[in-house]
Amino acid sequence: MTQHLLRYLAITVAAAGFAAAATAQTFTINGKVYMKTPEGRMVEVPAGKAPATAAAPATSYPRSSGELEQHQGKRYALVIGNTAYDPPIEQLINPKKDSRDMCAALKRLGFEVSCHENLKTRRDLVDRVDAFAEKLRRGARENAVGLFYYAGHGVQTGGVNYLLPTAAVVKRDRDLEYETMSLNYVMTALGDAKNPFNMVILDACRNNPVPGVRTRSVDGRSGGGLSNVKGPVGTFIAFATAEGDVSYDGPMNGNGIFTKHILLNLEKPGLKLEDVFKRVTQGVTDETMNMERGPQVPWTSASFRGEFCFVSCRDTAVDDYIAKLRIEKEAEVERLQLERDLIVKEKRVMELELSKRDQAASAELVRLRNEKAALEADKRKLESTMAAVRSTPQPQPAKASLSREEQAQVDQLRKEMAQLKQERGDAEQKARLELTKLQAEKAKMESEKTQMEAEMKLQQEKLKNARDETRQEEGKKKVFVPPSF
Questions:
Q1: pTM of the complete model beyond 0.90
Q2: The domain spanning residue 293 has which CATH number?
Q3: Phi, psi torsion values for 117, nearest 5 degrees
Q4: DSSP symbols for 157-214
Q5: Measuring CA to CA, how many Å separate 355 from each of 346, 349, 433?
Q6: How far apart are CA 339 and CA 380, in angstroms?
Q7: By residue range, what is the domain housing residue 84?
Q8: Structural domains in the chain (count)
Q9: What phi and psi, each to the nearest 5 degrees, are found at residue 246?
Q10: pLDDT of 118-156, one tens digit each?
């Protein structure tokens, strides 16, 4: 009894821990602990204030020989949002909110962020890029990760992309070199930093904002938007739309469509960088499918090794799923043991019922019945606990998110649970056969008892009849009168 109670308590505690883990997910980035709120936001947990789930050791999984190295160095970001352009350049409605929201999100994700709005001159842009590149250069030995985000006006001519400061004076093509900053300058600065990995995100693919500049590609074709660019090795580049196309603005006081979908996916755990932008592309394309110029399709270009995840490259749903399978397996083992004990008690009860005329056997029968009732109560508690575990909302991780080792663990757990269920079924069938046999023996004994009782009754009736006949004969002798002569 004590052993079963301890097992029941252990499984109950495990189930409670599983439910708690589902409500407070924590992640460690650059040595800092972050917690995911119910709204899906990442909030830094002050030192010493981390919940118990954050301190619990994570499940260790061996790295396979083909697994990619993760970029986990210190994170730096430069975020620029240009909105208030001087005439005749058109002012924009989204970059101010876009840049502020990106700054907030990147800070939550552990980036050291430099945030700037409405940089007026080329020198302002160049100075910020140079300072950013210097940080990356100093952190190169520690595998620093860089992210450059720009929201504002951009223009391309001759296959060269230019980012416009708010006070740029551009009347003709040749003014771009002196009044704006080329995207090539950014790429060169990142390449000179020699850190292993950088990201460049450009929400600047709008209509040509400068009437005096002819937007044309390298082959002379005219059109809006930016052109593709070749970055240094170790760079991921994301454009708001495909080469030569223009993007749509978002609502007043809202985010641009491209940045909105970045923010929706940036803080989701378990997503690699490529997965984030696949979701961004899908979301932007779906939202703009029926707009006037047709769908806006974001574009990415990359040449880097390893993998990068903003939150965690490990999908916590995988850990929760495996933990839940383990709890179910342990409960299944416990339930099988309980049912085996119940079968033994039931068999003993049947045996004692066949010989309950013995006083000692009757006392043993009472004790066994009490133990059987206690076991059945434990079983009901266990089944109630398991029902609570199974009712906990837990999305099954996509099969693609399971590594080979994780899938093997899940398959092994399922195999073991199936084996336990088979053993339980075999034990139940064997117990039913034994109980059926005992019941048949009991029925046979009761039949024999009934037959013996009938025979005894018949013998008693015969004996009574014989005694009655004897009494009648004796009565006749007593009243006999001899005849007189």
A1: no
A2: 3.40.50.1460
A3: -130, 145
A4: ETTEEEE--TT---SSGGGHHHHSEEHHHHHHHHHHH--SEEEEEEE---S---TTS-
A5: 15, 10, 20
A6: 11
A7: 75-303
A8: 2
A9: -115, 155
A10: 999 999 999 999 999 999 999 988 889 999 999 999 988
